[in-house]
Specification:
The protein is an alpha/beta fold. It has one domain (2-156): Rossmann fold, CATH 3.40.50. Helices cover 49% and strands 12% of the residues. A five-stranded parallel sheet has the order 2-1-3-4-5, sandwiched between helices. α4 (111-131) runs antiparallel to α5. It is globular. The two termini are 24 Å apart.
């Protein structure tokens, strides 16, 4: 499991705390651009680079706040993850009102919900891994994504 953490620069501190918790408490790999010297590319080079990084990740977590409304990259990264049929989850700490399109996927507001996210993701991954021998890769990824979203929303009462 490797989580791509999408965020606007103003939310780097929150994104960093999430990455730290995922790595230290849950032993989950993360990609966070503030730790990547290559993320300073621009334009097409950055887009190509981020597509490649997203390809190496298994899920995307969008950290959103009121500042995200001014971002071009966060919605783009969400679109790329959706195109790749990766599970998408939003972390909206504070009083941020989510846009309707983000409510399609599970959303987290607390550290406890972040822990639930990891627990459900790992459990879902184990179940899907057992089914691996009978399905194609594309169908398997789509199945994982649907199962993950359903299970996490149920666990969060959404």
């Amino acid at each position: 499991m490797r989580v791509f953490i999408s965020h606007k620069n103003e939310d780097s501190e929150t994104a960093g705390r999430i990455a730290y918790r995922l790595r230290t408490v849950h032993l989950v790999e993360c990609y966070l651009d503030v730790f990547d010297p290559h993320a300073s590319k621009t334009g097409d080079d950055l887009g190509d680079y981020l597509r490649n990084v997203l390809q190496q990740c298994t899920e995307l977590m969008a950290v959103v706040s009121e500042a995200t409304k001014e971002s071009w990259w966060v919605p783009w990264e969400i679109g790329v993850a959706q195109e790749k049929q990766q599970p998408i989850t939003t972390f909206a700490g504070g009083q941020c009102a989510l846009p309707t399109y983000l409510k399609k996927w599970p959303y987290l507001k607390t550290v406890n919900e972040l822990d639930t996210y990891i627990r459900v993701a790992k459990e879902t991954r184990r179940v899907v891994d057992r089914e691996r021998y009978s399905r194609t890769a594309s169908a398997l990824q789509a199945s994982y994504t649907r199962s993950f979203h359903f299970n996490l929303k149920r666990a969060l009462g959404q």
